[in-house]
Fold these 2 entries.
Entry 1:
Amino acid sequence: MSSEASDAGYRGDHRVPVTLACSECRARNYKKTKAPTQTLELKKFCKQCKKHTLHRESK
Ligand SMILES: [Zn+2]
């Protein structure tokens, strides 16, 4: 009954939409939601680079 592991969704928490862009070619490949206080940085596949790259949120 402990839920200290990072949860995808806090119940009732406000979440904002973000676009994740490849840090190498700047292609906007993914859409996500996040908590306003959170900064997203994820390794994702970029179809332009044809490999996994770091994706950061962009406006
Ligand atoms: Zn890329």
Entry 2:
Amino acid sequence: MPDHAQPTFPQTGGCQCGAVRYELREPPLGIWACHCSLCRKQSGSAFGLSMSVALDALVFTRGDPGSWTRQAESGHWLDCLYCCDCGSRLIHRRHENDGRQTLKPGTLDDTSWVVPERHFFTESALDWVRPLFPAGTDSAS
Ligand SMILES: [Zn+2]
Ligand SMILES: [Zn+2]
């Protein structure tokens, strides 16, 4: 993590309406931005932000998220957890349990320490976000 990021844990977060709340109890395993069209569609914004966290590092403290399942281009099946009231996407989980899950970190109450370490699919990034990453750093996989 970058030097300026010194979060303490647990960190709290939740959906836009507050019906679903969670606690993140351990530091993340990684933070990245994805500039593919699907992440743009999902986020409703210029790109998707993702934070990998251990499965047991995140605990729901209020509400029960709904789930929608889709197949990723990689062939993996993903459960996409969201608030049933306001629709905020919260978490993505692969069907085959690999011990981690992907939190949408914009749902944290404090996002000051959320800095992506990598950018994926930069070739499809919107022109005005390109200054966010140096040219030639595309790590699309
Ligand atoms: Zn909600
Ligand atoms: Zn993507």
